[in-house]
Amino acid sequence: MQTSSDDATAFKTIPFTWPKGYKSDGVHAGLRQDKKDMGWIYSEVPAQAAGTYTTNQFQAAPTKLTKKLINQDHQLQAVIMNSANANSVTGDQGDKDAIKTTQLVADKLNIDQNLVGVASTGVIGEPLPMDIITKGIEQLKLTDNHDVTSAILTTDKHPKTVSTQVQIFGKTVTISGFCKGSGMIHPNMATMLGFVLTDASVASGLLQPMLSQEVDKTFNQITVDGDTSTNDMVVTMANGEADNQELTTDSPDYPAFVQAFNYVLSTLAQDIAADGEGSTKLVEVNVKNAANSDDGQKVAKAIVGSNLVKTAIFGQDANWGRIIAAIGQTNAKVDLNHTSIWLNDLALVKNSASAHFDEAVMKQALAQDKITILVDLNVGDATGQAWGCDLTYSYVRINASYRS
Length: 404
Fold this sequence. Notes:
Distance between the termini: 44 Å
Structural class: alpha+beta
Number of strands: 15
CATH class of the largest domain: Alpha Beta
């Protein structure tokens, strides 16, 4: 059970499950060898929808189309997904293929085409093989299985899933999320697809600002390699099948819902960071006593994004100068004489000077699977948090042969 300081905002984690009113499937259509490569999610009724999208200027055809559809009516009923081919930088034909894909799904499900989103991930610049896409859609069924969570994977080591439940106006509401991503991951979206489904009834216009706010705190606070891809998005759907009283920002249970929603996004974000291509360690950076939250977030992201910090962690080298340098590269306000740093609760730096730590003890701490760095900027009372991973030889090997 996860709880805040107020028991009224308690929520619980549960084994991964679909909220009420959702179906899905995943199949091997032939885009990849011997792996599931196409899937969908479907709501039995049209759902409120919101999305956040990559900031890359070469935004892929499926990303552009889904953004347009959500911005149009703020509703979706289905999302069709494929891996192996990004349908990105594919010109007018790529746009036509994305639209054709949604038409095929709409026809099969007998729903409005404007309620079908599309998401793709994989190699950039290759035309979408529509014969295979058509074959895959023909195979898909409406089931309770979770195969879609595998169908979207590329270099990921495993599916990333999480479910929670929270009481809203006396009704049990489920929030479930799944995502993919392990490389080309950087703040402001990256080569990741994320989907968060809930059976909560929420007021029109509530979902988008809430998603944008929580993505800024979670998915936009992870980095693997500093690259931002062309296809990334996080989409959330709320179909109201839990039959709760409609949730608004003034509802007494709204904070509980936001807390549970944040937990889903935060868990998925950390799972992506931990599954970074070739990674051996999850790195979490917490900043305290920052001048404001923007500074706190900025410093945390700078540290997890530093290749010198990432390689030092991989090599189990307690070179705290790299952390100080990463902090100093930002324009955040810092007490230059009284900044302190801890690594897995062991003091590295006190008042901007070495804490004279035991190298052997620190090396042992750096051998752990999760490395937590705490930074005290000593200039205010705001905080920041970000997640990343170490940078290893395997990262180069994986990305040197991505297309082969």
